[in-house]
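=== Structural record ===
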Amino acid sequence: MPQRQRHLRRAAAAAVIATTALAWAPARLKPVAPTRRSAATLQTPVAQATDRPISTEWELDCFSRPVVQDGKKLWELLVVDSTGQWREAVQLPATGVNSVAVREAVEGVIARAPVKPTVIRFFRRQMLNMLTIALGGVAAERPTLRVAPSRATHAIYDWLEERERDVYPNMEGYAGAQQVQRDRMTAPTTPARLPEALRGEQYAFVTLPVAEVQAGGGVTEDNVGVGKMINVKESLDPGAMLPGVAILTRRADALAMSLASTELASVRADSTQRQLVLDVALDESFLVARLDDSQRVEAAGFEKAKAGLDGLHFVVVQRPDDDGVEPAGFWLLREMAT
C-alpha cells in the first residue's frame, strides 16, 4: 500500500475518535460514549508541486470591477480551473454585457484553453439569469459539459481576493478598496429536511492537523474517495487543528456518492438554533440534526476553530468500523463570509 494511503487511513481513524461520537435518532442526535483519543501523525509540509494537472472543472465569474474607464466600470469575465493552475481574464465592453456577449467570450476561452471543461460552476446571484442563458447555450453544443450554479467555487474566490489586493489597485481608474462582492444566495432560514440518501447513522465533530491537508500532507486528491480537495493557504499554521464533521454509516459508498452530487459548499453548526446544517448548491441547505446542550458546546468549538482558519473545515464519510480503511469520501471546504 502506498505510504500516503497508509497515512491517510491512520489519520482518518484518529479523526473519528478525536471527539465524542453522535448517534442518529429521528430529528435529533444523541451522544455516544467517547472512545480513547488517538494522536495523528504530523507531517512537515513541503513546497507546493508545480506539475499538478489542469482540472476539467472550471469556475467562472462575470461582473463589474472597482475600476472606471472612460466613465464606465470595468467588466470582466474570469475563468479558472478548480486547482487554480490555469486562469484567463477577458475584458468585456461595458455597454454590451449580455448573454450573447458572455457566451461568445466563454466560447473563446474554451477554444484557447489547454484542457476543455466538463463542469463550469458560477456563484453570483446578480448574474444568475444571464449566466444561465449564456452557459446553457455553450453547454447545448457540448453534451459532456455540465453547468452548475454553486457556492463550491473556492478557486474563483481566491483569485478575486488576489485581484482585489494586487491587480485593481494598480490599474488606472481604480475606484477605491472594497470588499470582494461574492453575492451568493443566502441560505434559507429554515433548512430543508435531509434527503434519505444523505442520512448517516452516526455523526461526530472531529479534527485533523492542518498539515494533513497542506502540500506534503497525508490527505491528497489520490485518497479522498469521491470527495474533493481545495487549495490551502500556505500561511495557515500546520500544527493547528482543522475542524470537521464525520458521517458514519454502513452504506458509506452510497452516501458519499449522493453527497458528491449535491455541490457541497460548507457545514454549519449553529449553536443558537441548535442545528447541524449542510449548505449545498447555490441556495439550498439541509438539516442534518438538532443539537442538545452538550453538543452545542462542541458546535461552538467547531465554529470557533473554523473561523480561526479562514473558514476551512472538512466532511468525511466512512463506515463506523473502518479504523484502517480510507474514507468513502473526504471533502475539504471553506465557508466564505457573506
Notes: DSSP finds six helices and 15 strands in the chain. The radius of gyration is 21 Å. The longest helix spans residues 293-308.
